[in-house]
Amino acid sequence: MDIGIREKSLSVGEAAERVGLTTYTLRWYEQEGLVAPVGRDSAGRRRYTDDDVNWLFLLTRLRRTGMPVRDMRRYAELARQGDRTLGARRALFEAHRARVLARMAELTEDLNVLDHKIDAYRRAEEELG
Amino acid sequence: MDIGIREKSLSVGEAAERVGLTTYTLRWYEQEGLVAPVGRDSAGRRRYTDDDVNWLFLLTRLRRTGMPVRDMRRYAELARQGDRTLGARRALFEAHRARVLARMAELTEDLNVLDHKIDAYRRAEEELG
DNA sequence: CTTCCAGTTCGAGCCCGCTCGAAGTCAAGC
DNA sequence: GCTTGACTTCGAGCGGGCTCGAACTGGAAG
């Protein structure tokens, strides 16, 4: 029945810890429009809901996979426009997914270069005692 | 008959094109100590040998795999000290290799998040006709 | 000879993604 | 009722990795 203190929301510090970002970054993300304005308590302090935290988590995955902040902002804008942008958001994810796959293929190749180099070093070391 | 002009070396522009960096970056890499001072022609223009180009190529792979410039510099310093640093260089590569593997594992996980999200969008779109 | 172009050096500037300092507010614990 | 400490806003600053403009030089083509 949620009578009163069934809040379960997090302060900026707690949210930051949960998602592995700093409080600075959380406020900055909000300011940059990556996060819709977060609810406040009576004293004006941010309260992060589960949904907010889940959204932040998703953002961290997008960032980690190399999505530029400007694209994340675009995505956030789409999300704020509701269901009618579902298709656009899916397209955005699919395009990003393809870039991540490409990136991984690249890394696999680069890893090969590293391995060959390591091998060359091993052989050279052997040769020199 | 190309008597003497068997140079086979590249100008900064040609080298840049070969390795996929700009001429600005090539000069900057040299200035930053990522590349040992490159040979010059009679007019003071840089001439990149095959070895130079191979070295640059290796640097691009290190960069692409996320090695910071400062580590590349350290590696370049080791390389300039000759054979006695072979072990250190191999260790550096092995450590980097491990980081790249970790990065790839992370990307694989993140890709999963993307896939689930794409799926969720698909289902939501279906639900809304 | 002149024009052109690719090169040279130097220091300044840029974009990105945070990161932080300052000054102030508020609620809780002693 | 005072202190503590986590919060607030604002604008400035930073580190990384280039990127560029300015002023100049030298070889080659017409």
TrEMBL record, chains A, B:
Q: Name one Pfam family in it.
A: MerR_1
Give the record's keywords alphabetically.
DNA-binding
**UniProt key word DNA-binding:** yes
Xref: InterPro entries:
DNA-bd_dom_put_sf (IPR009061), MerR-type_HTH_dom (IPR000551), MerR_fam (IPR047057)
Task: Give every HTH merR-type domain span.
Answer: 9-78
Could you tell me the superkingdom of the organism this chain comes from?
A: Bacteria
**Which PROSITE patterns does this UniProt record tie to the protein?**
HTH_MERR_1, HTH_MERR_2
Q: What is this protein called?
A: MerR family transcriptional regulator
